[in-house]
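Recall from the previous lesson that a structure prediction takes nothing but the amino acid sequence as input. Here we apply that procedure to Adenylate kinase-like from Nicrophorus vespilloides. The sequence below is the only information supplied.
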Amino acid sequence: MGCSGSRENFVPEMQRLCYDMSPLTDAKLPIIWLIGAPGTGRDTQAAILEDFYSFDVLKISSLLKQHATNETDRGRVIKENFMKKNKLIPDTIVIDIIKEEILSRTAWANGFVLNGFPRNANQADMFVKEACDVDVILYLTCKVPTMVSRSLFKSDSNRLVDVKVEIALYNKHLAQGIKKYSAKIEKFDTTKDSPDIIFPKIQSAIDVRVFPDGNKKDNTNVHNIIDEN
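The prediction returns the following tokens.
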């Protein structure tokens, strides 16, 4: 498992490793993809999910930034791509980093939330083929003007055109990436509702799809997390 990739994502100077993903499949841990363009509130909901369910949240962009500081072939490839305008990291690298991170935590994890994954169809297909299937896809949507406003506020930037282009490209690639997995998608519009209104809807979706036996946790710390974000 984990030794193949598309020609578009082939990195000739690097040899991909093979990963034994059986510890993950044997553990039968919940796998959740948390997706949505910048400004939809992914990070806030990820923090609530981590606190409420004790899931391990893997923020993909943060993992890539960490590896970009390593003096390795992989680190240099990531760093070079970050310096480019499109900032597109080869999908093979993204998938391998995620697999390594998951395997390092599987022994004590309660489940995984992949925050900001997948970004395209190839990443989605590679993960399912090389790692495991996904239980539920939490898709946060929002009206574009609201996403732009939130993104500009968060980044303290005036680059309106760049933000609009980034969101448009993100949504385009995301739509293609999850089209094949429509049966797993739970969609939530975050345009008007606050995080504390959105999360109970997310909780209900997870409880039905991941915990159908009704084994739910008590919602004790959600408001603290929301206040902090």
